[in-house]
């Protein structure tokens, strides 16, 4: 038994800081914001699609001019790439994205197999929207503003999820792979900006003959 005048045994206070907490929180915010924006755009697209099915003469609210014309896009086969309206896929995907972001923000931690599944999902999404970009530019010849909102949020969701999932490889071999991943992580914002600019350049080039008539 300790004497009454013995100093109390110091209590060890944990100073461990989860190094993954900051990136996880930033990813969570991105998933919530991007997921909500994409979800709203997908819901509006589905409402417009239903209205167009009910009335073939209906003019969608996002049909602004010959280039920015949702109606021209909604009536194509590409708008139902898997046999159902694309917005239904978007609603399911963005609802899941938002829920994942909320879970992460609340402190949820998931196994690597779960993140592998998320990576498959976001990779499918980014490949799909780039297929749609190609179809819109070079086959349909029109742009859907709400679809473009979906494009705009899908790209960073894919990019930042991919960067997050690849972080464990930053300290692995070969060293060259680790350096590439480190550079991609440090310049992820610049890569995203360049990605957006490339898509914007393609859109500008494809419809240049129309854009110059607006000047």
From TrEMBL:
CDD domains referenced in this protein's UniProt entry, alphabetically: VKOR_5
Keyword match Oxidoreductase: yes
Entry keywords, A to Z: Disulfide bond, Membrane, Oxidoreductase, Quinone, Redox-active center, Transmembrane, Transmembrane helix
Subcellular location(s) of the protein: Membrane
Bilayer topology: Multi-pass membrane protein
InterPro entries referenced in this protein's UniProt entry, alphabetically: VKOR (IPR012932), VKOR_Actinobacteria (IPR041714), VKOR_sf (IPR038354)
Transmembrane recorded as keyword: yes
Cellular component terms (Gene Ontology): membrane
Boundaries of every Vitamin K epoxide reductase domain copy: 24-165
Residues passing through the membrane, by range: 27-47, 88-106, 113-134, 140-166, 187-208
GO molecular function: oxidoreductase activity; quinone binding
Cross-referenced SMART domains: VKc
Family assignment from sequence similarity: Belongs to the VKOR family.
UniProt-recorded name of the protein: Putative membrane protein
């Amino acid at each position: 038994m300790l004497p009454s005048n013995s100093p109390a045994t110091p209590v060890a206070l944990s100073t461990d800081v989860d190094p993954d907490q900051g990136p996880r929180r930033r990813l969570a915010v991105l998933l919530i914001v991007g997921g909500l924006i994409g979800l709203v755009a997908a819901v509006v697209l589905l409402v417009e699609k239903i209205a167009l099915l009910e009335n073939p003469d209906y003019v969608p609210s996002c049909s602004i001019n010959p280039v920015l014309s949702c109606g021209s896009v909604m009536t194509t086969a590409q708008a139902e790439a898997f046999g159902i309206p694309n917005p239904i896929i978007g609603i399911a995907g963005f609802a899941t994205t938002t829920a994942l972001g909320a879970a992460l923000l609340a402190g949820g931690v998931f196994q690597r197999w779960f993140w592998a599944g998320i990576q498959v999902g976001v990779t499918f999404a980014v490949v799909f929207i780039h297929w749609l970009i190609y179809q819109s530019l070079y086959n349909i010849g029109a742009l859907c503003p709400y679809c473009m909102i979906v494009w705009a949020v899908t790209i960073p969701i894919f990019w930042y999820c991919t960067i997050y999932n690849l972080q464990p490889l930053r300290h692995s071999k070969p060293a060259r792979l680790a350096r590439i991943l480190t550079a991609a992580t440090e310049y992820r914002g610049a890569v995203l900006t360049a990605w957006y600019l490339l898509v914007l350049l393609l859109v500008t080039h494809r419809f240049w003959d129309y854009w110059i008539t607006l000047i």
